[in-house]
Write a structure and sequence with these properties.
This protein is mainly β. The protein is 0% helix and 51% strand. The protein starts with a strand and ends with a strand.
C-alpha cells in the first residue's frame, strides 16, 4: 500500500524553526520527484519546494528562498523540509507529493495527508 505520512508540524513563534518529515512506504521514492506544497486558510494549495529523484537538484518558490531547505534520504525513503525564520504567513497545512519520473513511474503521483504548521506569537 502506497503511503506518504508527514510529521513535524506544530505551533511555533515567528522567527522560530520546524523540521517536517515525509515518510514514504509502498514504493521506491528514488524514482519520484518529491515536493512540498502548502495550503493556507482560505487559499489554494501552492508549491513550496521540490527536489529531484536523485536529490541533486532543488527548486524553491521565492517566498521561502533563503529560509527553507528541502532534502531527502532515499535510503530511508524520507523527505524533509527544514523551515527557519518562520513568519505568520507560513501558517498552512503542509503536504508532501511524489511524482513519478522514470519510465515505469511516470504518470503516477501520490499525496500525504498533511501536517499543520501554525506560526503565531
Amino acid at each position: 500500500q502506497v503511503q506518504l505520512v508527514e510529521s513535524g508540524g506544530g505551533l511555533v513563534q515567528p522567527g522560530g524553526s520546524l523540521r517536517l518529515s515525509c515518510a514514504a512506504s509502498g514504493f521506491t521514492s528514488s524514482s519520484y520527484v518529491m515536493s512540498w506544497y502548502r495550503q493556507g486558510p482560505g487559499k489554494e494549495r501552492e508549491l513550496v519546494a521540490s527536489i529531484s529523484n536523485a536529490g541533486d537538484s532543488t527548486n524553491y518558490r521565492d517566498f521561502v528562498k533563503g529560509r527553507f531547505t528541502i532534502s531527502r534520504d532515499n535510503a530511508k525513503n524520507t523527505l524533509y523540509l527544514q523551515m527557519n525564520n518562520l513568519k505568520p504567513e507560513d501558517t498552512a497545512v503542509y503536504y508532501c507529493k511524489a511524482a513519478g519520473v522514470t519510465r515505469s513511474t511516470r504518470g503516477y503521483a501520490y499525496w500525504g495527508q498533511g501536517t499543520q504548521v501554525t506560526v503565531s506569537s
